[in-house]
Write a structure and sequence with these properties.
The complex is a heterodimer of chains A (248) and B (313). Chain A contains six helices and 13 strands. The radius of gyration of chain A is 21 Å and the shape is globular. Chain A is 27% helix and 30% strand. In chain A, the strands form two sheets. A nine-stranded mixed beta sheet of chain A has the order 9-8-7-10-6-1-4-5-11, with helices on both faces. By secondary structure, chain B is of the alpha/beta class. Chain B is 25% helix and 28% strand. In chain B, the strands form four sheets. Chain B has a seven-stranded parallel beta sheet with strand order 7-11-6-1-4-5-12. A five-stranded parallel beta sheet of chain B has the order 15-14-16-17-18. The radius of gyration of chain B is 21 Å and the shape is globular. Classes of the chains: A alpha/beta (248), B alpha/beta (313). Chains A and B meet through helix 3, helix 4, strand 7, strand 8 and strand 9 of A and helix 3, helix 4, strand 7, strand 9 and strand 10 of B.
Chain lengths: 248, 313
């Protein structure tokens, strides 16, 4: 079985994201970029399935400009067999990404497509579900445990009501949550090895994917800040304050 | 005029209060408001939905296959109804987040996630970068608006004295069998639900162990509060993950939030910034939680929380 892993590049989670003064976007110049942490978890799980003999090949896919290649090398250094770079200078939104992934899915015929439950930049939490819909296949979102059993998978999902287990027929789309695994660290020899792994580049324009139905983002702003309150000296003063406000 | 369809979230015969929050959001958009209940047994959920102020009609789609909220099963039924509507809304809970993108893709439209403010019938504000940035987005003309509604940003619609009409609808959509429910390991709790509770007490890593969380439970019980936790406490294995409050856990907006032994990582603060009043108890006076707390108390939680419990007796 082949596993296709969505591998997005985002602003590193440690960066304090700043809004441009004119509200036209966020500052990206000179800002550290990293793989989307949830996608790293998806890739780790795919690699573990390959190590267990469940999967035979792991392919990472990224969509973006020419300078996306070092990012894909990172996925190869983590252990993916090969990478697909869908090249475009335009920013893409979840529906377009899902349509692109569907084109690649039709060509690659994976048994599983794994993605992070969301990217930490736009926080959309849509791409996996959209791909599953377009592909007319099962989806299991928010996965915290995944077992492939023959032609099906059992997936434990972290949902608001607790832990839900679904059985899905393969092929399917699984989006992963934080607690599925702890991604491995990349070692220097892996980086050397990754240099000889193949990255195939496909022009997005050549895929015949519809677009133009994007949401238009007109304004970016920082959120309103909560103002700092008061420090109380002891429990009695706290309880008094809460009682006065009718909160306890 | 806008015609809005809200997808009801329900579990074990209870309408999730996030549905009532969607109704308030729908009223901010303006137009007629229908609520769709997909269920195997529609009562009493349809009645609870019909009793919400601002709901014009409840559509009841009863089908054995709707016993569990599977996105693959629900989405085609919703997509089939979409041509009659300008807006489709669901709460941005794990239910709505799982479902609405699947609906949107079937309809070939973009989806708006975590709608927190309405600036026009097609123009909305939503959070990105873990709530550190708010972006205004517009849905293209001619497309149905498919959105998830951030529950913490909207109060629950009040109960009405009259019931909206309930109409049974039949769906002739072929439903897939490739996705099957196996089990739900619920967080059994006699305590209030974390996401809808008016008071929440959360514990952090400073509790030091799962056993010590008893202090948090005791305080919560005294206050009639739900119990939450920081990601650090969850990662340390003190409590299960469904108790996690924060950007990657539950985003909540109780009237009173009490953070005990929680330093206040950005991802946690994102989850509580719409709370009415925030109380922080922490031994580190420099902890970032104090920058957002309305009332801060510096000291040893193992001394202060028992005092707090005592004071509530």
């Amino acid at each position: 079985m082949k596993i296709l892993v969505g591998y997005k590049r985002v602003i590193d989670y440690n960066v304090r994201v700043q809004v441009k003064p004119d509200g036209s976007g966020v500052v990206t110049d000179g800002v550290k970029l990293s793989p989307n942490p949830f996608d790293e978890i998806a890739l780790e799980e795919a690699l573990r399935l390959r190590e267990k003999g469940v999967a035979s090949e792991v392919v990472v896919i990224g969509i973006g400009p020419a300078d996306l290649q070092p990012h894909l090398r990172n996925g190869l250094a983590m252990g993916a067999n090969r990478a697909i770079h869908v090249s475009t200078g335009d920013a893409v939104q979840p529906l377009t990404v899902a349509r692109v992934l569907l084109k690649i899915v039709e060509r690659e015929q994976p048994g599983l497509v794994m993605l992070g439950k969301q990217a930490i930049d736009d926080d959309s939490n849509q791409t996996g579900q959209m791909l599953a819909a377009l592909w007319d296949r099962p989806q299991a979102t928010f996965a915290s445990k995944l077992d492939v059993i023959g032609t099906t998978a059992q997936v434990v999902r972290e949902i608001d009501a607790g832990l839900e287990t679904l059985e899905i027929d393969l092929p399917a789309v699984v989006t992963v949550d934080l607690r599925l695994n702890e991604p491995r660290f990349i070692k220097l020899p892996d980086i050397m090895k990754a240099k000889s792994k193949p990255i195939e580049t496909i022009e997005l324009a050549s895929l015949g994917v519809e677009s133009g139905d994007h949401l238009t983002a007109s304004h970016f702003a920082p959120p309103l800040k909560r103002s700092k309150g008061v420090m109380v000296k002891d429990v009695a003063e706290l309880v008094e304050a809460l009682r006065t406000k009718g909160l306890v | 005029m806008n015609k809005i369809l809200i997808i009801a979230e329900h579990h074990a015969g209870q309408l999730n209060p996030a549905t009532a929050r969607c109704v308030t959001c729908a009223q901010a958009i303006g137009g007629s408001v229908d609520v769709l209940v997909l269920a195997a047994t529609p009562e009493p959920v349809v009645r609870a939905a019909a009793a919400l102020q601002g709901v014009n009609r409840v559509l009841s789609a009863t089908h054995e296959a709707n016993l569990h909220a599977l996105a693959a099963t629900f989405a085609p039924q919703i997509a089939a109804l979409a041509p009659g509507y300008t807006h489709l809304l669901a709460p941005s809970t794990t239910f709505g987040k799982d479902l609405m993108p699947r609906v949107a893709a079937l309809l070939g439209v973009a989806q708006v996630s975590d709608l927190m403010q309405v600036d026009g019938p097609r123009t909305f504000v939503r959070p990105i970068y873990a709530g550190n940035v708010l972006v205004t987005v517009k849905v293209p003309e001619g497309h149905v608006v498919a959105a998830t509604v951030r529950p913490a940003s909207w109060p629950e619609a009040a109960a009405s004295s009259t019931l909206a009409p309930i109409e049974a609808i039949e769906s002739h959509v072929a439903l897939p069998t490739h996705t099957r429910f196996v089990a739900l390991e619920g967080a059994s709790s006699e305590r209030p639900d974390l996401q809808s509770a008016q008071r929440v007490v959360s514990g952090g890593r400073a509790l030091g162990s799962g056993e010590n969380f008893k202090l948090i439970y005791d305080l919560a019980d005294r206050l009639g509060a739900a119990v939450g936790a920081s990601r650090a406490a969850v990662d340390a294995g003190y409590v299960p993950s469904d108790m996690q409050v924060g950007q990657t856990g539950k985003i909540i907006a109780p009237q009173l939030y009490i953070a005990v032994g929680i330093s206040g990582a950005i991802q946690h603060l994102t989850g509580i910034k719409d709370a009415g009043t925030i109380v922080a108890i922490n031994k580190d006076a420099e902890a970032p939680i104090f920058d957002v707390a309305d009332y801060g108390l510096v000291g040893d939680l193992f001394k202060l929380v028992p005092e707090f419990i005592q004071a509530m007796n």
